[in-house]
Amino acid sequence: MKSSPEKFFQNVDLNLWNDWKWQLKNAVRTVEKLTGFLNLQSDEINQIRKVEKKYPFVISPYFLSLINPENINDPIRKQVVPNIEELELMSKLSYDDPLMEKKKMPVRGLIHRYPDRVVILVTNNCAANCRHCNRKRNWQKKDTELNIKNCATYLKNNPKIREVILSGGDPLLLPTEKLKSILDEIFFVSNIKVVRIGSRVPVTLPMRITDKLCKMLGSFSSIWLNTQFNHPNEITEESESACLKIQHAGIPINNQAVLLKGINDKPEIIKHLCQRLQEIKVRPYYLFQCDRVSGTEHFWTPVKTGINILEKMIGHTGGLCIPKFVIDLPSGEGKIPLLPENIIEHKNSTYKFKTYRGKIVSYVDVGVQQ
Ligand code: SF4
Fold first, then answer.
1. Lower CB count within 10 Å: N or C terminus of the chain?
2. Which protein residue's CA is at the shortest distance from atom 3 of ligand 1?
């Protein structure tokens, strides 16, 4: 599958279409513009107007062109078009900042949750505002300048930190020179060995992956990229070629999908997604339980849904296609990987395991006193 500029942007020159700056300049940010592309009923238009006051929307022309305008349940449409449930479903279980990131910021823009790694938020901007985003609380904030020197000083003063995760917003929306200057400051700190960049650009704006960007990223010693493909429809010729360019620059790519009700909460969808990711050499790393973020409740699934998806995949497809199913616990307590229950019984040195075919098999352990 390839994007279809002609679907919505008949007269656009292909050189412009493939220019990421043109894409950002022409991103759809108003209901008036959106109605020109999707069939919106008048009540839906009013609802979007209400929602965008609290949670604005942005959709790059490229990502918009992947939507089937006839399908109200299109998996990409549901991820980026505002839904009134963002305002109406707000239970006691949802929080603006469930991971308590604001409380774990010793320096503005730097989150320190785990002993050996930190997150640095470098921008609030994205090529598409994913309605399930766990930082949607920041969408209305102006993009304030990050003080990277202060962050670098913190990294230097905390030598246990070896890894920095650049996040936001989407770090790859920064100009290449700006991003390079941030990476220069970070890698100048001798205890920092690895930088991970969290970016959805390969999915929502693959034309941002330019030769210039790849050359700059490839010039650093160890950069990894984590992206977020949530549905097989997002794997297009353009996104595949963007991933290939990043890989050619020596940067491994991992995928962190989010489990979303009505979008990808079926074993066959996640299996197809992960197999396609393996084909384009992107490792299916995590399948996240959707965080308890205000304005995302309509996407939440029970824990059992994720476990069931794994049960339907383990043994039925190769291990490299199987992501870890993970909950990022509220209150910032950290990530917990969850597995289907395979241990049926454990007595003395004998375990009884359930295989992926449902057969019960005994296994005698070693080194255990009878
Ligand atoms: S790209 Fe990432 S940071 Fe941006 S809206 Fe989507 S999930 Fe949030």
1. C
2. 169
Q: Which amino acid is at 101?
A: E
Strand partners, 354: 360
Nearest-10 crossing angle of helices 148-157, 176-187:
20
Is the distance from CB of 233 to CB of 206 less than 8 angstroms?
Answer: no
Residue 200 lies in a domain: no
**Domain end (from 53, 72, 88):** 88
DSSP tag of 265: -
The Cα angle at residue 88 between residues 86 and 91, in degrees rounded to 5: 95
120 assigned to some structural domain: no
Q: Pick the range with the lowest mean pLDDT from 97-101, 313-317, 323-327.
A: 97-101
The residues that are catalytic are 113-114, 117, 126, 130, 133, 135, 291, 328, 335
What's the pLDDT tens digit per position in 229-264? Answer: 999 999 999 999 999 999 999 999 999 999 999 999
Please name every residue paired with 365 in a beta bridge, in sequence order, or none if there are none: none
d(CA 157, CA 208): 34
Tell me how far the alpha carbon of residue 366 lies from the centroid of ligand 1, in angstroms: 47
The atom number, within ligand 1, closest to the CA of 126 reads 4
Gap from CA of 60 to ligand 1 centroid (Å): 13
Residue finishing a domain among 57, 88, 119: 88
Evaluate whether residue 13 is within a structural domain.
yes
Rounded CA-CA distance 211/201 in Å is: 15
* Atom number, ligand 1, closest to the C-alpha of residue 129: 5
pLDDT at res. 369: 54
- What is the residue range of 356's domain? 341-370
How many domains is the chain partitioned into structurally? 2
Place of tokens 């929602």: 51
